[in-house]
Design goal:
By secondary structure, this protein is mainly β. It has helices at 2-17, 34-41, and strands at 51-53, 69-71, 75-77, 81-83, 87-90, 92-94, 100-106, 111-117, 124-127, 136-144, 156-162, 165-168, 170-177. It has two helices and 13 strands. The relative contact order is 0.17.
Length: 178
Amino acid sequence: MRLIGAALLVLALAGCTTETPTSIPESIDLAPSSSQQADADLAEPGNPEPTTVPDPSAESVPAEGEASSVIDDSELEIDDQVGDGSSVQIAEIETNLASGLIVIFSSSGEVLGSAKASYSVRPVTIELSTPVTSDSELIAKFYADNGNGVFDSADLEVFQRDDDGLDAVEEDFEYEVR
């Protein structure tokens, strides 16, 4: 009887050592649930941590748990400019984000150029991939970088809270070509 018990114990232990280790998932969804978002909305107003939330003005509704924007106390300061149409100067960026992107758009929505920006980079010069050829109104918008350092559809638009709700962190300005 002892021999059978010892054999069963050896087989049980041997089975433990041949077990395949658990694999690590390729991705983990870190977007907050609606209850986590409610908790984040009740956080202290001085909290510098950005919060991801669905964009309330988005035409398409993101999938459950998918964030489409970031809330942060960010600000852009841009003056009207005169130049040869090849670059834009951003006077100042204030943000709590470690890394973001400032994207320059034409008034028709065409992306003219973008540059990385963070709380420690001032001023920011953006070389335009599509030069401005005539006097125009341009728009600069701030996005949270998805980690690749290039503006693409995975980057999240940054919003700031004000008395009326949420406002996109963006600034329009006149650009005069000389």
